[in-house]
């Protein structure tokens, strides 16, 4: 749970360095996969509105480069994050100029 | 609350005349149609066909009874009613891209036109040469101007643009009006002076609206958020992100309440009482009572098989069946609006009552 908070703090939005962004994305993916299915809901509850928006950004970034198991995990998180953030959250991922 | 359908074409914009017996609409083409209310129906009485491009904005000045229209053919016309016929006058806007929105000022001596040429054209009538002239505001606008609203003092103009910023400019034209007094937004107001530029709003600014006193400015952006800038509190901006589809039009209905509508097909009410306190109040649509006739067991399972649901109807549970494109005040003063209208992509116009 704390790992989720920590990895979502200070996201590399303003940097142009692609490597930094990839490392951050990899870390987030590891944390998300480490959660048990039943804990996903609690994880999302512990985030505030901005946190949910940020999580959604990472989920979509993760969708772009699918690896063995990532899509299934991400889809689970996506479903729970959607019920918390609503379509507005996805809109903000699409309109954001600075990506994670 | 009453709905009237003007056909199947989406309605891009609409405007009411002074006593609200006539409405000018454009069904997403280069023609403006004026309907008059006859009993419970609307009858077509005029068709204004001067434009060659899709009409993007209509505004009807209530006192002087003039209509201004702008279209994607880079032109704007001012129409005056002579002998029961509307006659157009070309306005020299001098833009090289499509016009996107147009609004008469509160005193109706000038109007502002936003365009894709990254500038706002403020047009006024020059009596000596008997034509409409324009002055341009270009400072720091980096993309298409999407929406405009005038401050009640007839001088300040708010503009939202697709470069993610919302700005307030001074549109003071010294040839036709006296110097304005200072306002909460600033004291020095030469033409084109920018009095407010908000930081990145997170999305294209679809619509702006000044509060009745002019001290607050509300706008809606494409990232599903609504924000208010407060001049009395040091131009502080409060933003509320919603978890719905983006709102496309916003309207102040009282000094603290505003109504916004957009791709969710129904209006919502928001309330702003001070910095940090911008709240969603409620959804303003009453869902239709779906009359579920009795379905036979065979029908029920057939639907489950074909469509994976046993719900027969494919209509949305609200009055409009497609996105709302524009909201407009119908009755009541700006400080206490009683009725407002909305038009949408489903070709329908709905009159809503607002209870304070």
From TrEMBL, chain A:
Top-rank taxon of the source lineage equals: Eukaryota
Q: Does the keyword Transcription apply?
A: no
Cellular component GO terms held in the UniProt record: Arp2/3 protein complex
* Pfam (any one): P16-Arc
Looking up InterPro entries in the UniProt record yields: ARPC5, ARPC5_sf
Give the subcellular location: Cytoplasm, Cytoskeleton
One BP annotation, GO: Arp2/3 complex-mediated actin nucleation
List residues traversing the bilayer: none
Kindly state which keywords UniProt assigns to this record, in alphabetical order: Cytoplasm, Cytoskeleton
Q: Main role?
A: Functions as component of the Arp2/3 complex which is involved in regulation of actin polymerization and together with an activating nucleation-promoting factor (NPF) mediates the formation of branched actin networks. Arp2/3 complex plays a critical role in the control of cell morphogenesis via the modulation of cell polarity development.
What does the similarity note say? Belongs to the ARPC5 family.
UniProt protein name: Actin-related protein 2/3 complex subunit 5
Q: Which organism is it from?
A: Coregonus suidteri
Source taxonomy:
Eukaryota, Metazoa, Chordata, Craniata, Vertebrata
Automatic annotation (TrEMBL), chain B:
* Keywords recorded for this protein, A-Z: Actin-binding, Cytoplasm, Cytoskeleton, Nucleus, Repeat, WD repeat
Q: Which PANTHER family match?
A: ACTIN-RELATED PROTEIN 2/3 COMPLEX SUBUNIT 1, ACTIN-RELATED PROTEIN 2_3 COMPLEX SUBUNIT
One GO BP on record is: Arp2/3 complex-mediated actin nucleation
Localisation per UniProt entry: Cytoplasm, Cytoskeleton; Nucleus
Where is it found, in Gene Ontology cellular component terms? Arp2/3 protein complex; nucleus
| Primary site of residence | cytoplasm
WD repeat feature ranges: 48-82
The protein, known as: Actin-related protein 2/3 complex subunit
**Pfam families from the UniProt entry:** WD40
MF-aspect GO terms: actin filament binding
Please give the family membership noted in the entry. Belongs to the WD repeat ARPC1 family.
Alphabetized InterPro entries for the sequence: ARPC1, WD40/YVTN_repeat-like_dom_sf, WD40_repeat_dom_sf, WD40_rpt
Q: Which domain of life is it from?
A: Eukaryota
